[in-house]
Amino acid sequence: MKPHRTRPLILRVMTCSLFLAADTFVEAQQKTANYDESKVGNHPLPPVLGEGNSIANSSAAWEQNRRPELFKLFEEHVYGQTPQPNQWGPVEFKILAEKKDALGGKATRQLILATLPQHPSWKGMEIMLHIPNEGKGPFPCFIMPSFGGNHAVSTEPDVPLSTRWMRPNKEKNIVANRATEATRGTESSRWPLAMIMDGGFAVATYYYGDVEPDHPDGWREGLRAALSKDGADTNWQPGQWGAIGAWAWGLSRIADYVEKQPRLRGDQLIVLGHSRLGKTALWAGAQDKRFGVVISNNSGEGGAALMRRNFGETTAVITKAFPHWFTSTYSNYANNETSCPVDSHELIALMAPRPVYIASAVEDTWADPKGEFLAGLHAQPAYDLYGKKGLGTETHPGLNQPVGEHIGYHIRSGKHDVTDYDWQQFMAFARRHFKTN
Ligand code: GTR
């Protein structure tokens, strides 16, 4: 597989304009989408526990029959199937750098390169891990992908700039699809690292584009092509994994590393993601039960928001703008949501009985905050099988009033983003469930 920068200029220009076209398309759709609650439609949701004789009425029946059945439906119809470990072989972790006094002494920071020796055409992913220096430990650990790379998460000048392909973004100083020195720290407001350290948590991240660049052709230079025996064709077959599946795979590989660190609690891992990476975190949590807490931030359509509600982004828009995120079957449900055998309340239910938290923002109407809340509400039957309380209310709560026990939820003031307020709720939720202080 040729690295991107050696591809002919015409192809690079085409990829870039395809990408811009997708963004312009989404912006136009955002203006004309339905935001009127009286027009969302009232479509019954598929029953979480199944139907007829096969209704799961115990946690054992859920685990043996219904959960695997639902899981398979999500593979077949939404995200595609992730290859099994024997298809990717061993993962090699190499510590590239360790700094014992990062964040003014608050943290030990490691940079780790994860590669697949059996698939060298995949260039690997750089994990950045911050572990608190203070406190006894071992610490629970957040695992969250970034949009901009490790150097955008941290403001510290010794974190190397990512050299990988990046989505065009003038505000973040991306030039010709590459990060520049001025990109440093541009995502740091979403990563209050000092606050997380003071809160007694470690945090590990990677740049999602390390696994696969985020454009329809990106798979050719990422993990999916590297693992595919037959090359191009298999990637668009129904049921084959999409980019979200590949990015979620990356989160599980971070878990592989983190769970072996003596300063960290391998049994207290929290997977978290924002927006398209919130969809990714949910799919990672569904696949990998080592994630003891699963958190979706503003994940919207194709994530926590119910697809059957016509509010904000729709299946038709998302599958047109970002066909590469999902398995190809998902686009069959554009303007035809009711024939999809699953909806997002069942994605949330796949976490049961593990605690799951859904965060919305009031100005993020594109992500359908109410649809995100309702997915949490209608996941409850699966939690009931374990006697676990969920949201504890059927009413969409007011602003900045977190609710729920095993299914947590808040809608905060402000826009599509990750804020300190969100992090405070996530840490409180994780603390409550992990019983840490
Ligand atoms: C939007 C997309 C959303 C959401 C968002 C993001 O353009 O329509 O589904 O994923 O991007 O990831 O920032």
Task: Break the fold down into its secondary structure elements and pairings.
Blueprint: H1 9-32, H2 59-79, H3 85-88, E1 92-102, E2 107-115, E3 125-132, E4 139-146, H4 150-153, H5 193-198, E5 202-207, H6 208-211, H7 223-227, H8 243-258, E6 264-274, H9 276-287, E7 291-297, H10 315-321, H11 344-349, E8 356-361, H12 369-378, H13 380-384, E9 407-412, H14 420-434
Parallel strand pairs: 4-5, 4-6, 6-7, 7-8, 8-9
Antiparallel strand pairs: 1-2, 2-3, 3-5
Helix pairs in contact: 1-10, 8-9
The protein binds beta-D-galactopyranuronic acid.
Residues 26, 275-276, 300-301, 313, 318 line the site of beta-D-galactopyranuronic acid (GTR).
Give a written overview of the molecule.
This protein is an alpha/beta fold and 437 residues long. The chain has a single domain (2-97, 133-148, 198-434), classed as Rossmann fold, CATH 3.40.50.1820. 32% of the residues lie in helices and 16% in strands. The chain contains 14 helices and nine strands. The protein has helices at residues 9-32, 59-79, 85-88, 150-153, 193-198, 208-211, 223-227, 243-258, 276-287, 315-321, 344-349, 369-378, 380-384, 420-434; strands at residues 92-102, 107-115, 125-132, 139-146, 202-207, 264-274, 291-297, 356-361, 407-412. It has a nine-stranded mixed beta sheet, sandwiched between helices. Strand 6, helix 9 and strand 7 form a beta-alpha-beta unit. The longest helix has 24 residues, at 9-32. It is globular, with a radius of gyration of 21 Å. The model is unreliable at 1-6 (pLDDT under 50). Beta-D-galactopyranuronic acid binds at residues 26, 275-276, 300-301, 313, 318.
